[in-house]
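Bench notes, bay 3.
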Amino acid sequence: MTRKNNWLSTGVLMALVAWSGTTLASDRLYVANEGADTVSVIDTTSFQILASVRVGKMPHNVQVSPDGKFAWVTNNGESAQTKGDSVHKAMAQGAHEAMAQPGAVWVIDTNTNAVVAQVTVGMHPAHVVVSPDGRLAYVTNGGDNTVSVIDTSARSLVATIPVGQFPHGLRISPDGKEVYVANLKGGSVSVIDTASQREVVQVQAGKGPAQTGFTQDGRFAFVSLSQENAVAVIDPATRKVVRKIGVGAGPIQLYATPDSRSLLVANQGTRKKPGKAVSLIDLQTFKVTKTVVTGAGAHGVVVDRDGRFAYVTNIYANSVSVLDVTEMRVTKTVSVGKSPNGISITP
């Protein structure tokens, strides 16, 4: 009887260990290093670089799929390095001029960190997002004013949607029904209906719309105005800008916390005068309540599922800052590749 009880106790203990190991497994960050033609994979517990994945030319943005199995990366096709040429011919940091050939989205298997697919899209792709059900990926093509829609299973193009001038950042509404696209040179946000796959309206937003975002509860949408040093708040019900909030110089990416109470905004500034901080906006008062210094050229930002940590790419410092959202302080700085831009975290 004692032996049997010991065996049961051991079995239960082993099951608990296995369960806890699965539950407490580290998240991974995927960082698009535009100046290095790579994607850095970072363990969020040890903050070690797990892999440096060679991708196409000037990878600007990366998005992990909702099931965590794949990371989608925008770039401009085969680079000199992927072809075996040791001479890197990347575009200057921060530039966003259209390339001569159509760009692509490359797909990384997050289990092996190997590139498993390449999909040709439009001219100079900027950002990519994956629908909540994982079926479709949307890609902004800054060089031809379109959004490409990709079937993620077939990994093939299924639609091309005309939008505003020089579309850049984009995000999908929490209910998956709309895509908000920031038209960098058009001063507007295109609203795409995901049922019909067409633009239904353009919301006039301001100067230099760079990236959009939503609160998780769907009450508010946002767009960073890089040439106004502000964030515009959009009411998704009326599709109108209801207010603007001043932030730091050259705001680029923004991300709401999971509780829909705060918005983090990365202020990149310029190469000559880099921004170095993230603004925290209280979404009850719509005021900046805290500004935290991260690194030169704060560009990309993502918040983990618990809302505890935010991760910020510093494009001119070649690093990622780990920001404790509760305490609003940087707890770690991780060196990555040259000119880190987009950043995404496993769900």
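Next record in the batch:
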Amino acid sequence: MIFTAQIVTAIVAIMHVYFLWLEMFAWTTKAKKVFRNIPHDLFEPTKNMAANQGLYNGFLALGLIWSLVITDVIWSTNISLFFLGCVVVAGIYGGISVSKKIFLIQGIPALLGIFLWSIIKFFP
């Protein structure tokens, strides 16, 4: 069960590394293909805002990666739950304020991770 929880956590971390790259380094190029609902003329003026978002996604990814290298199962579980919880909150907010697709892409995998880590924490 721990391995499955770690895999899901790693997937969520990889997704956030991708979001970091997209928002910080590819906002005016590749992001236009991903965020089709944003008018093309808004990408350049929102470049700094997107980079800031990307930085936050990087912090989430770093926290999730950190949780995977911790050898103590209790600490690893707690750190994973915290950062996955942060992802869920961001996914809920994005789903309400921007697009339901954000919750589906970001929130559902994090909720799955929380479910798996919770089983490990509460039913060892």
